Amino acid sequence: MTVYEAALKRVEFVFSEFEYVYVSFSGGKDSGVLLNIVLDYVQQHFPGRRLGVFHIDYEAQYQYTTDYVKQTFDSLPGFCDKYWVALPLTVPSCTSMFENHWIPWNVSEKSIWVRRLPEDSINIENHPFDFYEYGMSDYCFQRQFAEWLQRKTGKKTACLLGIRSEESMDRRIMLANKFNGRKYKNILWSTGGIADNRMQYNFYPIHDWTAEDIWIYNGRFRKPYNRLYDLFYKAGLSVDRMRVASPFISQALRTLYLYKVIEPNTWGRVVSRINGVNFAGIYGGTTAMGWKSIKKPPGYTWKSYLEFLLSTLPQQTREGYIKKFHVSQEFWRRRGGVLEEEVIGQIRQKTDARIEVTSESNYRTEKRTVKFLEYPDELNIEEFRAVPSYKRMVVCILKNDHLCKYMGFTMTKEETERRKKIMEKYKNSL
Description:
Elements: H1 3-17, E1 20-24, H2 29-45, E2 51-56, H3 63-75, E3 80-85, E4 91-92, E5 101-102, H4 138-153, E6 157-161, H5 169-176, E7 190-195, E8 198-203, H6 211-221, H7 228-234, H8 258-262, H9 264-271, H10 277-283, H11 302-311, H12 315-335, E9 337-339, H13 341-350, E10 355-358, E11 368-372, H14 390-398, H15 413-428
Helix pairs in contact: 11-14
């Protein structure tokens, strides 16, 4: 069975199990392929079924992406419900050490918007969402949109996303975690959440596709795609570096410089819109922002280099990092993290780290618990991100990774509360 045939079977399964299905469409290659697969499938096998198409517009994006999204929405068949959302949402940003987020379509900054609101978009003036709060995080919005859609349709609802496990280790872990009890009928290519005492699930029908599979599909079936990828190709980017998602997250910074080459006019507006973009555009793919093989200055350990970097940061930013780093140190010393046998073997073979390994764990996993009796300066192993080290902390600072997602952190209660206050500030400024 080919990956295309497997994807069709997965789509067939979702439509047979759920009364209403919608596709999350970003304007990128993966979500574009998934949308085309689903459109063809519905027309052939489920005539009369409604299909939702959901897109969040982040304002500061390539015009090529906006054109592709508009072309796609304009060509959607009559059985599609269109949700092109252009609302002020809080979005992570790794371009500055002073700000860890920005708000697209922020009404108080309308004079410096990168572009005008798209026609027929769902925006601050016309949105129907009873759950929406000004400046809420894009992640919370997506989750609550699913709940709202299920209430609106009154049907058992599923969301299809064009996420591929090849793109990151985090995605591979999410899809491969068979101990996650919130999967639909124990299907690995699903995740779930509760909505009004009913279950709403996400499914990933093309999770096992490679980037090459994506382009083979587009070529074989002559499907439209975001022509920005043609320019990426001409610029010499490999297929794994071509990103059209939010350009200000850590993963996209190394190609941010292409903005000023491909769309100089858009770049000029972006520079005045988001703090730190010009610096990130120059150094985003270099060791200055945690990319490639970073090196510590001569005479420094990673710990002393970390202390130096912390001393250069604004007080609030520095204190935020210190709290998270302390949590990491205490966690790995006292509780321990779960690691694969292969990773444990690499630590023992390639480093002199003092570790304690047990089979006991508070997690539902087959992995073993590892405690670090001394917090290591550096662990030179393949799974560098999976294990603690002062070097990993340095990488977080260089990447302006305020939440320390590189180290596996999520937003704390304090950070959530601070975000709420920021949301109220912008809300009251209207």
